[in-house]
Every structure is written in C-alpha cells, then in structure tokens.
Amino acid sequence: MKINSLIKKLTVVAIIATLGVSLVACGGNANKSSESKAAKSALDKDELVIGLDDTFVPMGFKNENGEIVGFDVDLANAVGKKLNKKVKFQSIDWSMKETELNNGNIDLIWNGYSITDERKEKVEFSKPYLSNTQVIVTLADSNIKSKNDLAGKKVGAQNGSTAVDAVEAANGIEKTFDGGKLVTFEDNNAALMDLEAKRLDAIVVDEILARYYMKARGEEKYKILTDNFGSEKYGVGIKKGDTKFVEAFNKALDEVISDGTAADISKKWFEQDIILK
What we know:
Structural class: alpha/beta
Main location: other
Distance between the termini: 88 Å
Number of domains: 2
Pfam families: SBP_bac_3
Keywords: Signal
Subcellular location: Cell envelope
CATH architecture of the largest domain: 3-Layer(aba) Sandwich
Family: Belongs to the bacterial solute-binding protein 3 family.
C-alpha cells in the first residue's frame, strides 16, 4: 500500500511539473510574441501604407482618372524614396484615422493632418511642414462679416476635422448657430456643395483647401472672412511609441526640404514655396 501510494504521489507531482513547464513555455512565447509585436516599427517594413481622405484637395484626392494625387502624395513619395520604402495610399474614413493607425491598418496619417494636443495623446507626430488656418467661407453675397454674425446661421464642417475642434473650443459660439450645433459632413466637398446650394450659410475649413477649391470653382463666387478660428500646423501621424521611425522620418523629411524637392512640389501645387523650414 505504501509503495502504491508513493507511486501515485510521484505521478501527480510529475504531471504538475510537466504542466508547469508547459505553462511557463507558453507564457514565455506569448510574452515574446507580444514584445515582438510591440517592438515592430514602421522602419522595419518594406512598404508604408498611408491613410488619407481622398477628397481633400490639394493635399490628397482622386483626379478625373481615379488616381490619388496631391501635394501630400508627391511629398510622401519623395520622403519614401529617401527612406528606401515603397509607398501605398489607402483611402480611409477620416473620422476613424487614429483607430486605423493604432489597429495597424495603416502606417501613417498623411493628408493635411493638423497637430493638436488632443491628437498628440493618440499618435506620434513628425516635425511640422506646413502652416494652416481654420477659415470661415461664405458665398460672395453673404452679409456674414465675422464670427459673431454666425449666430442663427447654418454652419458646416467636416466630421473629425480640426475645424470641428476649433469651433467647439471657441467659447460657446457653436450654441449660437442655427440648431445649436455645427452641421457635419463626411468630407469637405459635401459641405462646399451645400454652401453653393445655400443649404448652409458658412463653412469652417482649412484655408489651404478653401483657396484651392475657390480657384478651381471661381474665386468671385466666395469670400473668406478675416475673422477665423485659429492657426495650426500640419504634421504626419505615426503610431504611438514608434520613436525609432519618427527620428528616421524627420531626417528624410529634412533631406527632402534641404535639397529643394519639397519647394518644387509646393510650387507645383500652390505656385509658391510655403514649406516650413
């Protein structure tokens, strides 16, 4: 009986020991896998997937042939060459851009992406490369002359844009609008079309987009107010914690600026060099 009892005890101990080793091994592999995934940098990839709103002229948009073109597209291709990376552009829902980045569906947010403190909590930013202002655009015959004149008016902006953030931060002015809030749209083109159709009285939008759009559609049809919702800078969004890639990216961007490539791209799209040095 004693021998049988001893054998049973030894068997149980052996099983427990085996399970323990297996669990440790599995845990170790899981940790290694997790660490490997966490340590993965965009710098280690051969191809960079860039997320963009493909209606945002002139930064990144589809031309009449369905090709994605624009200032940011040309600049991204130039930086990609410096990094020895292929570049792929992927259209995304702009209101979901940070989610797309953090889920690994894209490697960069690059499309007139304004640097804000709130966004810094979600992504890493490259150095800024362009300045921008959130302007108020109306039709030329509008009697709106300042932000105060927006009271009781229908005002639109793109959902998920810094135009929305700027209006919401402007001391309760949004509550004075018709309906007590902004009318938001999936993209700026839809907002501009509603402005032209007089379903909106004004829109808040990036000045860079507004001036390009007005030039294409007829500047005499619109006006940009002197009063605005503040200035900002554009940067490129990179996954939070990927400081290795941020450093390499900024170096490549500096090279594209210093060798004159960025200036040439700027002149192509804006007829002048507006790159931040």
